[in-house]
């Protein structure tokens, strides 16, 4: 076996399909988001504007977050010192978990190093806690949910995306008395559409199923206190397990699950992904706590973000560009060709100083390649106009189709 040749073939396949991914070397500057510095491959540096970040509200530069992190690192140092069971549980972790539990109206919460790990660890341990569990999973669930279910080695049945009629059919086919979990998301980040939470909860009640929702792209962004779509719609109390992140709207790092005290205790006690992982540094936990607290009491940033998202969608639609608008903060522009999608991304960066990564397979199905814009509350009207004008010119230059514009 020529191992290097096999690696060359695998990587060349990505190049041939136009979906080889490159890292863009950018330097965020405190107080200047969404502006950053791009360190180009030729050794030059230039100012750019970030349009694809998941720091949706710019909380990664908020003074309350930075102050909390500085205070914690001065008080405790850099690392946590171990896993939660050894020496990695601090007052900062306990405060963060209490803040998260309160955010979702749950008895308890458990913090992980990322929402990916939270999904993987939790969904893989639930079949051990509930023998003979069958998990009904939305077809477009995140890779971390898919991996967690796979690692649980239980029966999985896939229902068509957001299709509650199909979900009902699958529930009706489950043998009586078996434990059931329905796993789905509140916002699906590639299209920006919402999960039918109320209808799924109704079915869960009817068939005696547990509910597991991924609110990663919604926490901090929706609801009176930022509790996500389930809070916005008054449904959080009907969800058994809520997964979320501190790395997107909250601008820091880490993930979690929130649930009943007994459920959290069981996950804490049995999930290898929690037991054997070093805990978040105290400074990270402190920053996340400060961010959650701020967004619980101040909706200014999320309100402005929604306004900017609506304006961007309206202006891009006015140019005839094919966008999805499901009413969320995510603005996907469909290109449908991996090579042209990458070309658009490169030209936006190199010619206009606009940074947006192409979204290709396997993140989205082949033929649905797109640019995914995430306007923040600090993208100014001038920056928005720069983006719209650049997209207009490049769309024409790449000879991409537009929708028919009404007179």
Give a written overview of the molecule.
It is built from 14 helices and 16 strands. It has 407 residues and is of the alpha/beta class. The chain has a 7-stranded mixed sheet with strand order 4-12-11-10-7-5-6, sandwiched between helices. Strands 1-2-3-14 form a 4-stranded mixed sheet, covered by helices on one side. A 3-stranded antiparallel sheet has the order 13-16-15. Helix 2 (63-76) packs antiparallel against helix 11, helix 3 (91-104) runs parallel beside helix 11 (282-297) and helix 4 runs parallel beside helix 5 (143-151).
Can you tell me the overall shape? globular
The whole-angstrom Rg is 22 Å
Tally of DSSP helical segments: 14
Q: How large a portion of the residues is in β-strands, by DSSP E? A: 15-25%
Q: Estimate the helix proportion, in percent.
A: 40-55%
Would you tell me the structural class of the helices and strands?
alpha/beta
Order of neighbouring strands in the sheet with most strands = 4-12-11-10-7-5-6
Low-confidence stretches are: none
The H-and-E topology, N to C, reads as: HEEEHHEHEHEHEEEHEHEEHHHHEHEEEH
Mean pLDDT: 95
Total beta-strand segments: 16
- Main sheet attributes: strand count, strand direction, barrel closure: 7 strands, mixed
- Multimerization status: single chain
Distance between the termini: 63 Å
